[in-house]
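Table S4 entry, N-acetyl-gamma-glutamyl-phosphate reductase.
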Amino acid sequence: MGIRVSVAGASGYAGGELLRLLAGHPEFDLVAATAHSQAGQRVDAIHPHLTGLDLTFAETTPGRLADADLVFLALPHGQSAAIAAQLPDGVRVVDLGADHRLIDSGSWDRYYGGPHADAWTYGLPELPGQRELIAGSARVASTGCYAATIILALAPLIAAGVAQPADVVVVAASGTSGAGRAAKSHLLASEVMGDLSPYKVGAHQHVPEIKQATGATGLSFTPVLAPIPRGILATVTALPVDGADPRAVLAEAYADAPFVHLLPEGRWPHTAATLGSNSCHLQAGVDVDSGRLIVVSALDNLGKGAAGQAVQNANLMFGLPETTGLSSLGVAP
């Protein structure tokens, strides 16, 4: 018997991706998958791509989850903290929601509202020193999907002092799975196909998380809904300091990062190349007119942006190689 694992919120898109990854993980044994309205349904009735996984959704209760060494919480924002507080101290927890990401209670109140829970160790191993912190933690708050895409592009530039933190502009497009599985009229295929539309302009909830993790002090972020199921493409620009080469900074920052790939010069990221993987693809340059630094970043919002990132964190928490059960290679076509 390996490390016993439970997943809360397993009927959603991120939860389904977690189940897929865990089913193939050599050290994690999936013992429970819980859901709300889908409790009592077979997993493969909700996730047909998981046919062969002999498991039925149970109700999401602390007692049902606690019979495990590790619990993943793939619940809507604001619902994880109450469940986590009732789990035994000996159970390690990775939260895919936002409940435990933000240190500042004012930022939580402004972008989410409701009670502010304590901040846990932030679950992005590629940040300096973060692998060691995650490995020594029993509670880890995994990243947001947009946040992971943007932080990986921006954090090394600010840390190296080559990008001005007060003037960062991001435009990023995400697939529809990033909005969750709940039926919403604006996410119907007839509404989304053949269209691009901005949303939460000037007030997206991942802004304080990105600023907290990168040191950015001024961030303008415009998210765009793209007519694809999964994937994020972010274009991050910032004013330079002393004309440094952003590619050199990124190459040094991620020289030993198994899942972050700086592409060969002249080749720009695209979402399809990251699908099904735990990878983030980066490319950088300088705008010849404005002089702004440009980094384009792509990842699978359900992979490195959610379930894959959570498994990477869990691997570190249990002393496993962070690549265990994860692939850096995408799926095509």
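The longest strand covers residues 163-174.
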